[in-house]
Amino acid sequence: MEDKKRNEMYNKYVSAKIPKTRPWPTLFNSFLVGGIICLIGQGINDLLMLGFPNLSQQSAWAMTLIILIFIAAFLTGIGVYDQIGKFAGGGSIVPITGFSNSITSPSIEFRSEGIVYGICVKMFTIAGPVIVFGVVSSMVVGLIYWIISLF
Amino acid sequence: MQKEQTFILKKQPRIIGSYTIVGPKEGNGNFGEYFDYVMKNDCFGEKTFERAERKMLETAITGVIQKANLQQKDIDLMIAGDLLNQIVSSSYAARMFQFPFLGVYGACSTMAETIALGSILVDSGYCKNVVCCTGSHFSTAERQYRFPLELGNQRPPTAQWTVTGAGASVLSLDGRGPKISMVTLGRVVDWGVNDVNNMGAAMAPAARDTLLNHLANTKTTPDDYDLILTGDLGKLGSEILIDLMEDEGVNLGVNYGDCGQMYFKSEQETLCGGSGSGCCATVFNSYIIQKLKEGQYRKILFLPTGALLSPTSTQQGDTIPCVCHAVVIENDVDMKAEKQQKKQTEKQKEDYVNKQNEKKIANMRGMKNKSIKSTKKGENSSQGV
Predict the structure, then answer these.
(1) Residues 6 or more apart from B257 whose CB is under 8 A from it?
(2) Is A54 in the B-facing interface, judged by CB distances under 8 Å?
(3) Nearest residue of B to residue A17 by CA position?
(4) Could you tell me which CATH number the domain at B2-333 has?
(5) What is the ipTM for the molecules in this complex?
(6) Are strands B179-184 and B2-3 parallel, antiparallel or unpaired?
(7) Of residues B320, B326, B316, the one with CA closest to residue B308
(8) Is some CB atom of chain B closer than 8 A to the CB atom of A6?
(9) Distance (Å, rounded) from C-alpha B266 to C-alpha B248?
(10) Structural domain includes residue A113
(11) Using the beta-carbon criterion (under 8 Å), do A19 and B193 form an inter-chain contact?
(12) What are phi and psi of A38, to 5 degrees?
């Protein structure tokens, strides 16, 4: 019992002593970089619509996503994306480029363990939960949509 | 002789050689000029970082044997450890050598653990020369304990930077160097911290426990030591240790330092400082040994801490058990005076040689060139006019 009390006290003391991240500068950085990434995406989209007038809006969006994913994967490969991430925090994690980074970085890291057991197995160690939650939540939303459409 | 957790060594083995090898970032840190070898890149000419770590350990072991003026056959035992699963780096490095090998794991406290074990074995007379070695690599530790290197995430402000480096020392009864007079082996302490990004806070209670034990067993106070050096508590952890000791009525003053906190320069962005078993191993085997030899320090209490966790245990929500071993290193030889004496004898030798040479030259000149002398005389006279 005494140990438990001491541990609780100690954890309280430690959490009071931990240096806090300053919220406003980090929020600003992530807003800035996240905004720039979205701006680049919009730019690509507009250029695509200009260059290929026959392209539908839907396929232009898809093309934009593919291009953004490629850029992020490329930047990860040459070791730039983690520098951006260090500065931007959530700003470069939340957009689709962050998803691309989270799949590319373990692939590079575990290349030394071989293609099947290294790259293929470890590829989704970080992005796996995102895919699981994405699929499950879309199923739930679809179910709700179906129930509503019955009435 | 044993007093509870403290072993007082009778024969006092000496550290007759030490060698360090570090990565480029560490080479640019505060201790950069003291290391024996700074690698040009983290790969060290190998395909994977794991192999680079192995090669670092091999280099450190061969380097230290050479530096102690010994041969491989003179070594009776090697004690080594590292951070990787199944301590592969040490074991793989050991297959290169022909002496027995004991693998130990004390996480970041491994250097003190190997030295403690080695000095007890040497002191008891069972071993003559023992090699103690440990190291860590940022990229291998990062991949095992945290995230891939290229992942674009931010580190929390309490995070520390695993040092890429290896250090080795040779313990022996004959030879010159600082001596090990006392060893205190630590208990495993767990005060319920489960944040893997805050190792300093988890390990500080272990350092407190061993330090209090050591001071009580040896009846010393912090003021009896020129330096009390913890391993990798970091900025936050060392502050916590000072607070914890103050609660016990022991003041850690200016003679207290932490390897991790001092390791990197502030612009190197390592947040709370360095960590890993290579952190205190490289500082101890370079800077500390050199300063002991130079006579700046006479008595040092070296007590690195180690967090004995695994990624599985943290994922299952367990708290972090920690350990801390202490070693007292003393320098009884007045190295400054010795150095001066050496210099003086060397000077005397040089003077003697120079005089002999001058005599020889003078004789030769006297025998051969009388004409040159005469012309010189002529020049002198003309200058005089």
Answers:
(1) B227, B228, B229, B230
(2) no
(3) B236
(4) 3.40.47.40
(5) 0.86
(6) unpaired
(7) B320
(8) yes
(9) 31
(10) yes
(11) no
(12) -65, -35
pLDDT of amino acid B384: 43
- Report how far residue B228's alpha carbon sits from residue A49's, in angstroms, rounded to the nearest whole number: 68
pLDDT at B337: 63
Contact A126 B156 (CB under 8 A): no
Residue A101 lies in a domain: yes
- Asked if A18 and B143 come within 8 Å (Cβ–Cβ), the reply is no
Contact status of A12 with chain B (Cβ, < 8 Å): no
pTM above 0.80?
A: yes
On the question of pLDDT at A98 being above 60, the answer is yes
Answer whether residue A150 is part of any domain: no
Cα dihedral sign, B33-B37-B43-B48: negative
Cβ separation A10–B192 shorter than 8 A: yes
Contacting residues of B for A82, CB less than 8 Å apart:
149-152
Is pLDDT at A102 greater than 60 in this prediction? yes
Domain span at A43: 32-125
CA B77/CA B169 separation, integer angstroms: 12
**Cβ B154–A109 below 8 Å, yes or no?**
no
Backbone φ and ψ for B286, nearest 5 degrees, come out as: -110, -80
